[in-house]
Amino acid sequence: xxxxxxxxxxxxxxxxxxxxxxxxxxxxLKRYDRILAAAGTPNSVFELKxxxxxxxxxxxxxxxxx
Length: 66
Description:
The protein is of the alpha+beta class. It has helices at 2-5, 53-57; strands at 24-26, 34-38, 45-49, 60-62. It has a two-stranded parallel sheet with strand order 1-4. Strands 2-3 form a two-stranded antiparallel ribbon.
């Protein structure tokens, strides 16, 4: 994970990766106005609006949690 994104497992944020990555976003996150995402370390998070994830990451919304 660190080689591909620049971050260790448990701290991989949805943005700022060292390489381009395929980002898939679970549609269930749309149920929440605000979510917490990893912020680069296993012990840090930041808050963001769930509906901004696709714009921030270039990701695709999919129904994952069925």
